Structure formats: structure tokens, C-alpha cells
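With this grant's support, we have settled on a layout for protein records. One resulting record is reproduced below.
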Amino acid sequence: MASRFKVVITDYYYPSLAEEQKVLKDTGIEIVDCNGKYKTEDDVIKYAKDADALIVQFTPITRKIIENLPKCKVIVRYAIGLDIIDIQAATERKIMVANVPDYCINEVADQAMALMLAVTRKVKAAAEEVARGNWSYQKAVPIKRFSEMDLGLISFGNIARNVGGKAKALGFKKIRVYDPYIKDTAQYPGYEFASLPTLLKESDVVSIHAPATAETKHMFNRETFAMMKDGAYLINTSRGALIDEKALVEALKQGKLSGVGLDVLENEKNVGENPLLKFDNVILTPHMGWYSIDSIAELQRKAAEQVKLGLLEGKPKYWVNKF
């Protein structure tokens, strides 16, 4: 079939574009792979100026880029978060923006639970002690049962709900939720919806699942940490920007927190210089919560489906800026 539309894929780190090709085969939508061919905004504009759609991974799609895409109808991100796309600029130019909000729900929830188990069971400290030749659990003392601990969930989207289900199976005494955008809380029996101060004061483990927005930037700061229960544990598999890491380091030095598990950081480039690495009770993983071989294939397929629906039907399933 002759090409009627062009979708430019700016960047990705998958082995191939086989999933996208399967979805777009015989649709008249041509894939243009620009992976590694650009360095600046002007480069993106050069390669995408005649594109009908974009799929992006990490490339910031700025107002300047958007205003130089005269044919573009759809921008899709290989991700749940849309913080790298200027959605306001896209909306002004009637460009549909879509994400893939449900591709790695189990994976991120599993990562949160893995970090939760690791920090509460003091796995890092115990393993390092054995590596030194000391067959002793004293570095892991004290450890409490989950049945004697309360869990607090920050935000209650798909991933947090998945975490909540897994946490119930592990036997947490109580699960509290802070999410001011959920009005019908009665549809979630088994959860106690609370204010942020109450959740922080009462929770032994706090797991962050909120998106990165202007409202949530440094949501966890010096004041927030002061509200937390002494000896609490903090887990973040959401976005690094939600935590003021300087304040977190202070809280750890003061002994406010018993342990921290992070899959995301504010600066994920110069990790070797991060002071959090110096703490025995902090576990850092390299933003891998989204990953499994299954989730990658799902992400690629669903991103391509958004382009197909947007260009051929004018309505992506995951259209976020409806106009």
C-alpha cells in the first residue's frame, strides 16, 4: 500500500521496531527511524518537519519543535509519563498527545514490592555483612512483621492499586491512601483514605506513585520528612523529581528513616556522585521498574496503535489532551 502518512520515531533503545512494523503494516503509515540522527531541536525539526506523527522515548518535544511541525497530528510517548512533551503547545496546535498508561503496571508494582521487601528485611546490610565473612544477622536488627506495619500509598492510580493488592496479600495491618483526586473512595473497600499529614504520621512504609508535575515536584521535602513516622521506610518507583534529595540525605543522617528504596533519582546521569550511595540502608536500582521482555513488546505495540488510531480514526485510545 502506498504511504499516505509518515510517523517519525525520534529515539528508542529496543532491539528493533518489529512490533511497530506489525501494527502499521498495510495501513499506509510509513515508519521513519531517526534513532541517533539528531542532537538539537533543529535536528528534530529537520527530520520531522513533514511528519504526520511522532513517537518519542526521551527526546524533549518542546514548543519550538511543535510549532515547526505543520503536518503533525499525533505525538505519542513510549512511556506513561508525558513530562518531556509540551502538551500546552501541542493542544494549541490541535495535535493529539498520547501515552501508554497501562503497559508496565505489574512490573513497576513488582519493583516497588521488591524494594519494600529488601529495605524492610535489611537485605543489603545483611548481604554485605556475609560478604565480609560474618555469618550474622545483627546488622539487620530490628525487623518487624508486615502484620504489625501500616502502608501508605501516595496517589492511587493503576500501579498503586496493584501494589495495594500485593501488599494485602503480604498482610500489612492497614493500607492508607492519599489521593485528593479520587472522590468516590467507597469503591475501594479495604483502603483508608487519609490526608497527607495523617498518612505520613501513621505509616511505617510509604510508597510513592504520583506523577511528576509542577504540583508534585519535591513533594517530599524537609517539612514532609518531619511529618513522617520515626523509623519509617520510603519507596519511590514513580519519578525522582518528587523527592528533594538534599532533604532526604538530611533525614537519613538524622536517623528519621530506617530505610529507603529508590528506582528513580532526580539526576540519573551522574549517579556515582550521589550521596545516597553512602548509606547502608538505601537501595538504588537503575529506573528498571518498567522493564520486562513482555512489557517492552507491549509498549512498542501500544505506542504504534496510538499512531494508527490517531491518523486513521482521529481518536487514540490513550489521548490525554482531548479538544
